[in-house]
Amino acid sequence: MFASALLLLSYVLLGIFLLAFVIRSVRLARLPVHLRWELAPVPHEKGKSHYGGSYLEEVNWWTRPRHKDHAAEAIYMLKEIVFLKALFEHNRKLWRLSFPFHFGLYLLVVAGGLVVIGGLASVVGVEMAGWGVLEGGLRLLAGVGYALGMLGALGLLFVRLTDDGMRNSTAPVTYINLLVLLAMFVTGLWTVLAVAGFTGHVMGFAGGLLRASVPTDLPGMVVAHLVFALLFLAYLPFTQMMHFVAKYFTYHKVRWDDEPVTAGSKLDLELKKLLNQPVTWAGPHVRADGKKTWVDIATDLERPQEDEE
């Protein structure tokens, strides 16, 4: 009975995660075109990014082929994602806590990949004995990941509670996010250190999910941690932690979007459609009435007359 309940709960939480994650990711991808402006440097500007130049420097640039440096773009993203480069440069104090927090999560993602591999192997009947990378590597990655994540989460909670600037700008939901993660880190680290056969238990659980029959001999601490981990996954798509998906669009579709607008192109048609939307902004300086479009407002030569004293 208990195993069946755990199996059902796991499927429900994983289903919520997958469905919500896909829906929110699609919504992010389908957001309207951002306010287009030149933000330099753009890493994919081949031969020019190091000094902030762009293809607009070229004479008759619209007639010349564009050459993008995708390797430089990938290196920039790697530094930002793995090492939090921008945070390191602009807020070193917060980086010292945020880096171990994020790096711990990255290690847990890799550990999760090993769990999936182990679960698949057990389903197809592959013997796991002797797979040192999976057995020893999983315990090491998970232990270090949980420890780093726990230290980072505790530090971030402390800073946000004690620093006036951080406390005044932190939404209550941020504390909830950190507490949910902290519960997962603490129970995970406790499980790694206290439960013999940690690797076998979690891989057995993964294989059980694939076979629709989870093991009945899982230790209580393993079950508690697995429930916390699954709750975290189900909760994640509804929070600001989806920024790891939004970051792709922030860089590629906002900061680095320097595609030229050519007549009749997809981008041209999309921009025209947006410019012809009615404006309902309440600010008197906009002079919107719910009927005028952005084009009407931008091309309206009339100006409101100032009251004479």
**Overall CATH class of the domain at 2-31 and 84-238:** Mainly Alpha
Distance between the termini: 83 Å
| CATH architecture identity of the domain at 2-31 and 84-238 | Up-down Bundle
- Number of helical runs? 12
Radius of gyration: 26 Å
Explain what the structure shows.
The protein is mainly α. It has a domain at 2-31 and 84-238: Transmembrane di-heme cytochromes, Chain C (Fumarate Reductase Cytochrome B subunit, Up-down Bundle). 64% of the residues lie in helices and 0% in strands. It contains twelve helices and no strands. The protein has helices at residues 2-29, 70-83, 85-90, 92-123, 132-162, 164-168, 172-194, 198-211, 220-235, 243-255, 266-275, 294-299. It is elongated and about 75 Å long. The relative contact order is 0.12. The mean pLDDT is 88.
Helix-strand blueprint:
Layout (H helix, E strand, L loop, with lengths): L1 H28 L40 H14 L1 H6 L1 H32 L8 H31 L1 H5 L3 H23 L3 H14 L8 H16 L7 H13 L10 H10 L18 H6 L10
Helix pairs in contact: 1-9, 4-5, 4-8, 5-7, 7-9
Name a few traits of the molecule.
12 helices; 64% helix; mainly alpha; elongated; Fumarate Reductase Cytochrome B subunit; 309 residues
Summarize the structure.
This protein is 64% helix and 0% strand. It is mainly alpha-helical.
